[in-house]
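haha ok so turns out i had the wrong file open the whole time. this is the CORRECT one, sorry everyone. sequence first:
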Amino acid sequence: MIFCARSHIGNRRKRNEDCYHVPEDGRGRSLFVVADGMGGLSYGNAASRATVDAVVKAVEEESGLLPARLIFDAANAANVLVRRIATKAGQNTVMGSTLTLALVEDAQVYVGNVGDSRAYLLDGRGLTRITRDHTYVDELVRAGLIAPGEARAHPQRHAITRAIGIKEKVDIDVFEVQWQRGDTLLLCSDGLSNHVGDAQIELILKRDGGLGAAADALVETALRNGGDDNITVVLAQNLDGEVPA
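then structure:
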């Protein structure tokens, strides 16, 4: 397996409130994480950093658990930590973060998500979105009240319905997918998905040039298309046990 990550502040933001994690070498069970913080001032950055740190710690300490249970526990650990930090910061402090993580074990990928950071899989059939956005607009689309094409321009497209740290209990979706040699996993914040459509993401990932070039192209395309948010991209490719030098 090879992997890479890119994170860009974007064209308009004053700070990067995204945070990510990739493994050291891709051997054994490998963890990938993307978190997009919210809260204003420095709280968004603190929330995403705490979310990633808590998830990494939980996975390291509870590695004997089944993947689905491990993802659930990691999300809850992140929720507790972010709420604790918000409480210490003051009664009126609102902090939260999205969370999308992937646990890779051989041919299996276990994905968890809260919020609107996404996970995709590119395989021989094309690009598939693994996760479901937890947003008000996505709920409207699923209910048939607006068309999918209307979602990107909807005035409430950024309103999320789930996040780490906002409520006492966190609800995380868990998915299991298989990947084979040559398949590519993408985790990203909404700074990418809000500006680069799925069809364009697929075209970029299918280009020759390597994983790093694909990550750069995704970020550059998001910036050209507006780039009004932080942009984070994590890519991993299954090479049947090969690891980066």
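The domain at 2-237 is CATH 3.60.40.10 (Phosphatase 2c; domain 1).
again sry for the mixup
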